[in-house]
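Hi there,

I know you've been waiting on this one. I reran it after we fixed the sequence typo, so this is the corrected version. Both the input and the resulting structure follow.
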Amino acid sequence: MRFALIVVGLVLLVAGLWVLFGHGSYQQTDTLVQFGSAKLTATHDKPFPQWLGIAGVVVGALLALGGFLRKR
């Protein structure tokens, strides 16, 4: 259990830092025009919100710290 807390915490910490430094994004596709079955779409990258990165860093740090400080 202790090892799992440390690993999950470190993964969340690294993912949160990745988002905070602006490297995390996802693709969103919007339909611009549609005539019957023909449609014109646009796909663009949207960054993850900063609060998601901050939450990942905080939760990851707490889990990793809890794993390191846990007795046994």
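Quick highlight: The longest helix spans residues 50-69.

Best,
R. S.
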